[in-house]
Design a protein that fits this description.
Length: about 425
Amino acid sequence: MRSRTTPRPVLGLRENAAQFSLLVAVNALVGGMVGQQQTVLPLLADGEFGLTGYTFIFTYVAAFGITKAIANYFAGTFSDRYGRKPVLLVGWLFAVPVPLMLILAPNWGWVVAANVLLGINQGLTWSTTVVMKIDLVGPAKRGLAMGLNEAAGYGAVAVSSLLAGYLAQQYGLRPAPFLLGLAYTALALMLSGVFVRETRDYARLEAAGHAPRSDGLHDHLHAGLTNRQIALETSLTEPALATASHAGLVNNLNFGLSWGLFPLLFATADLSPSRIGLLFALYPAVWGAGQLVTGALSDRIGRKRLITAGMTLQAAALAVIAASAGFAGWALGAVLLGAGTAMVYPTLLAVVGDVAHPVWRGRAVGIYRVWRDSGYAVGAIFGGIVADLMGMHAAVWAAAVVTAAAAVLVAVRMYETHPAPSRVQAPSAASADRTG
């Protein structure tokens, strides 16, 4: 009598289309948890809690960014040690109280506490879905995989921001917009618990067939690096990994600044909540949709050019927003900012996947995302201080200068990490048997 065995893993997007699509849907729900509050909370701070100091208002963004950054590290470490699916499930459990706390919050401290939990949720779930998708597709379609992942997440941010703005205008700032979050959490727990499968064996398969670069550039990045060595390479030493980490921080500095500042800036033109929601949604909408193109494009033309051009375009977009004082200029700036971010966001993740060894890829992704998502807090604090001292337009100008400097750093220090297409071959289970 034949025993039933689990099918051997095979790398590839087409080969794992069903599971990959499911993870795309889960990541859309992750993004939706952020979108439900982005339009509403700055208006809630001003309208219901009477907060006026920009630095104080931005505390919830800083709290979110700091906790998300820390959670990213543990997501990478635990997903390599215990598996991806348990980390994903635990992350969604942290989301359960968030909408209820925002609905019932009697003071701003509750909002900050809810964003601490949301940061943990985002760090654990988003990092894990990134690692799981990289596991499944192998090296050939890594850019496309990251483009699809980030498009789903930030497309959902845009849609939820728009829906929350509409619900706020029709039914008030509370509770209607935050009912979205309750629905997202329930659906995500069901999908993650019942249908998502563990993907760590796919990373082991890729590791078994892992071939070093012919130029010897990554010879020191072997499978046996310690956590401390991985952190050092990803943060400072390895040129591509470190530059990606620093560019990611600046990218999310802009997002953190926009999250806290843009709704307040747009409100100076006496726009309605729905118009503010539309303006805010343009940025992540273009960002999300653009990644469907840019992720795959980086598989064909390489990573460095897209990242350099994207950071430069972000700087130009921020200058347009800073120089504008009405809907048309802000809309143009938001579209350009989304386009620049779309060029950068999935490509930076693909760089990390290119360079990191499959055995410690989860930890490298986690450390990269620690740097990147620290940008939320840096952007909120930096933007709040500059806005308090010099005004909101000055804060956006300052972010434009920082972003331009990041583009120069990428151009000077990062090397091209994507191998020639002829060398990108997904290992089969048979090759794993020969090399494992």
